[in-house]
Amino acid sequence: MQRSNQHPGALLRHAGLSLLLLAAACTDLGAVRDWSGASAGIDGFGAGAERFAGRPLGQVRVTPPTQHQALRDIAAMRQRQVGQLKALAGTVGLYMETMNRLAGDGVPSMGGEVEVLGGRLGAVGLPADRAEAGIGVLAVVSDAALAGVQSSRLRRMIEDGNDPLHGVLGGMIDIAEAFRLDLEIERARWLDGFVALQTPSSPVQRILWQDWVTGLEARLRREEEAADALTAALRIMASGHQALFDSRDDIDAVALARRLSDEAGEIGRALGQVRDAFGN
Amino acid sequence: MTDDPTLPPADPVAPADALTADAARAMAEAMRRAAVKVFATARAAIDAGDQAGADVLTLKGHALLTTALRLNTRAVGLSLEAVGGDARDLVAVAGEAQRVLDRIGDVRRAPDIATALLAVGAGVAARNPSAAVSGLRDLRDAITA
Predict the structure, then answer these.
(1) Which residues of B touch A165 (CB under 8 A)?
(2) pLDDT at B3 over 50
(3) DSSP secondary structure string for all residues of A190-258
(4) So what's the ipTM on this one?
């Protein structure tokens, strides 16, 4: 039989090539997928932007009339920023969703097309038995090759995206800190500039007053914690992507996968807290 | 007159080209802290029976907070301006990757990709690693073209 006459070196080369292709296709990108999937849930940033825009008007009730027009002007300025802030979050969301797809395991299989293609192997001058063997090999090789291209494109994306992503995330961190400061200003307006200057006249009024103040403090605290969580999530995303960039040639390294899996959980929890406090 | 405590203080916001987002936020924070101190003084005036003095101080404190809000708004605007170029670059990177993904997804209808796959298969079947590797290169080029 011809197969038994094959030179061992040729068989090894054949096996080695197939294994090389399979290795490219078998890169475990589960951690990258989890990490980018969690990071894509950044829509809470846009909800935070809506809150930011509405905050000046929410303070009108406890602000002297001489300040009302200024507060309305500031609210109008912020309303013009909302679209840009949402677009910024959308940019990061798009990038992360694309990375998630590239790291996905949904590589299309050539399936039945392989039979058709394999049938054409004879037409390129191969002996019939080799053409038949080629059909089986092609079934494996074609899917592996497509997966390999996808995985190599992921590396390229991480390489090209690292600098601009750091720039965008840096700006978003600054903006999240502005969201946080805004809540401190609101706290000063309500608690220092209004609540602390009132003197309820009866015991019943004092009880009702205290209940209302407790609710107000809880709302402010919840939003302040959400703003902190947003900043933390953005920082983790920046450092995580840097780790991906640094390890892009060994993207399924165990240490990196462990780190990304941990970070995916942290990002998911933090962004969930942001959505709970600010809405979607 | 800026000495009139019923009026907000003069807007200390510098022209945009002379201000950074960090500086604007730091100024806003300073205004907030100043307002909290003014409100505490107003409370002390109320406790001392000086309601008129407390009213003046309260107005001043609120004016400081309004200025803090304006500065914080400016800080966000400056951050947005600073990231515009990076955001455009990031969209371009994502768009390019999506184009490749779409092409991979559409692989069955792409004759050049099918041909490149055929070359890979032929190279492997013929035990010709260089032909297979060359086919792989063509495949990558066909997908990313």
Answers:
(1) 86, 90
(2) no
(3) IIITTGGG----SHHHHHHHHHHHHHHHHHHHHHHHHHHHHHHHHHHHHHHHHHHHHTGGGTT-HHHHH
(4) 0.81
